[in-house]
């Protein structure tokens, strides 16, 4: 991957992740037309009628902030998969199906208060019904009161406007530093 490849992305770190993720399927060798579709900014996507990634991420962040959990779950297909590739030992790495996602969310919201999400940077590939979103959240652990300020890079696949697969890359050190879930010796 060259520096020139990265200059098309607003955020160089997101560009690196994007090319790292897509390298195994040969996107870097794709025709220029496909590359140009992927380089579209969020406003260009909306103008071109590709608002699904934006709508999904707006619902994802806003419904969580408003505590509308049942509506948040409607963003997913019933067979959706939610993955956490960087989850430390003792934390789930994969959730299969809407019921497992719901159970996890209820447990998570008993441990963390999310106070704010940043506006996501979205890079979409409409031909694969997939996008990458980078965003942050500010919050605090309800167990310890420590800050929980996380950066997320998510790879989201969707079909018919619903999430089918959500791969959530987050920093496990933030979880450990906030003592999310409390110290096992204190229980």
Q: What key attributes describe this structure?
A:
single chain; 187 residues; alpha+beta; seven-stranded mixed sheet; 8 helices; disordered N terminus; disordered C terminus
Task: List strands and helices in order, with pairings.
Blueprint: H1 3-6, H2 12-22, H3 32-38, H4 42-47, H5 52-65, H6 69-73, E1 76-83, E2 94-96, H7 98-109, E3 112-117, E4 121-125, E5 130-141, E6 147-159, E7 162-170, H8 172-177
Parallel strand pairs: 1-7
Antiparallel strand pairs: 1-2, 3-5, 4-5, 5-6, 6-7
Note down, in words, how this protein is organized.
This protein is an alpha+beta fold and 187 residues long. The protein contains eight helices and seven strands, in the order ααααααββαβββββα. Strand 4 (121-125) and strand 5 form a beta hairpin. The longest helix has 14 residues, at 52-65. The termini are far apart.
Distance from N terminus to C terminus (CA atoms, Å) equals 48 Å
Query: Taking Cα atoms only, what radius of gyration do you get, to the nearest Å?
Result: 17 Å
Strand content: 25-35%
Oligomer: single chain
In DSSP terms, counting alpha (H) and pi (I) runs of 4 or more, how many helices? 8
Largest sheet: 7 strands, mixed
> What's the count of strands?
7
């Amino acid at each position: 991957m060259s520096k020139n490849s990265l200059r098309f992305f607003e955020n160089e770190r997101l560009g690196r992740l994007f090319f790292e993720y897509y390298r195994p399927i040969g996107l870097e060798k794709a025709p220029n037309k496909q590359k140009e579709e992927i380089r579209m900014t969020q406003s260009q996507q909306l103008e071109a009628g590709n608002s699904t990634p934006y709508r999904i991420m707006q619902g994802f962040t806003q419904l969580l902030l408003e505590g509308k959990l049942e509506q948040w779950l409607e963003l997913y297909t019933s067979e959706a998969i939610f993955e956490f590739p960087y989850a430390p030992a003792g934390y789930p790495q994969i959730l299969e199906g809407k019921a497992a996602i719901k159970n996890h969310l209820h447990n998570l919201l008993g441990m963390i208060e999310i106070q704010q999400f940043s506006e996501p940077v979205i890079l979409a590939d409409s031909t694969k019904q997939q996008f990458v979103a980078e965003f942050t959240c500010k919050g605090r652990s309800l167990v310890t009161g420590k800050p929980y300020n996380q950066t997320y890079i998510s790879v989201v696949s969707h079909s018919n406007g619903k999430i089918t697969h959500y791969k959530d890359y987050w920093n496990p050190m933030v979880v450990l530093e906030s003592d999310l879930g409390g110290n096992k010796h204190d229980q």
